[in-house]
């Protein structure tokens, strides 16, 4: 996800005095995006912690993991099933578990247990691209209910069912030929921002 400023990852609900964020990453592309997100959060003086239980063997994803480790971002060895522990320790959760590429992945472990836990947290959840457990076309079918959705490239069809507080799109980086091919009508991005509120 290209990042250019503090607004690049929109977490306005986070107080600056305890900017703790739990980034929960799945094994596929959305998990890799979560790793990049955690790295950028650290750059902007947030305090991310990563839960990445099923690490991908992909060399690029391994590089993202190494970058996070070199930035002293802690990795949890397990996700507490006691939801109050998560609510007390963090100000927000970034959902990078599943994504647009997921097909019923929420039924397999470790995703099923993660989603069962995330459904009960009371702190804000920020989903990247597609909320975990949602069908990319139809929307929610028992998945999580995020407070914030950050659509990557362009909103997916399921975003029409998003009822949270804020919806952002990060797609300024899309080449014009891709925008034209898929008849995307991107929003105006102010200044040098790579993310815009919808």
TrEMBL record:
Pfam families: YjeF_N. Residues 1-186 form the YjeF N-terminal domain. Signal peptide: none annotated. SUPFAM superfamilies: YjeF N-terminal domain-like. GO terms for molecular function: NAD(P)HX epimerase activity. One of its GO terms (cellular component) is mitochondrion. PANTHER family: NAD(P)H-HYDRATE EPIMERASE, YJEF N-TERMINAL DOMAIN-CONTAINING PROTEIN 3. NCBIfam families: yjeF_nterm. This is ApoA-I-binding protein 2. It comes from Chordeiles acutipennis. The lineage of its organism: Eukaryota, Metazoa, Chordata, Craniata, Vertebrata. The gene is Yjefn3.
């Amino acid at each position: 996800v290209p990042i250019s400023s503090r607004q690049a990852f929109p977490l306005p609900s986070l107080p600056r005095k305890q900017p703790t964020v739990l980034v929960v990453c799945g094994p596929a592309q959305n998990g890799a995006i979560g790793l990049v997100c955690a790295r950028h959060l650290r750059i902007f003086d947030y305090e991310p912690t990563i839960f990445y239980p099923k690490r991908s063997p992909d060399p690029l994803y391994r590089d993202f993991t190494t970058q996070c480790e070199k930035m002293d971002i802690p990795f949890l060895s397990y996700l507490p099933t006691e939801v109050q522990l998560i609510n007390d320790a963090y100000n927000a959760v970034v959902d990078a578990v599943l994504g647009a590429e997921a097909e019923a992945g929420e039924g397999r472990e470790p995703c099923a247990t993660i989603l069962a836990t995330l459904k009960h947290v009371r702190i804000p959840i920020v989903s990247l691209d597609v909320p975990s457990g949602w069908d990319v076309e139809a929307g929610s079918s028992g998945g999580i209910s995020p407070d914030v959705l950050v659509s990557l490239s362009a909103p997916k069809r399921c975003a029409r069912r998003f009822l949270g507080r804020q919806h952002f799109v990060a797609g300024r980086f899309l080449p014009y030929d891709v925008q034209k091919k898929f008849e995307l009508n991107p929003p105006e991005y102010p200044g040098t921002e790579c993310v815009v509120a919808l």
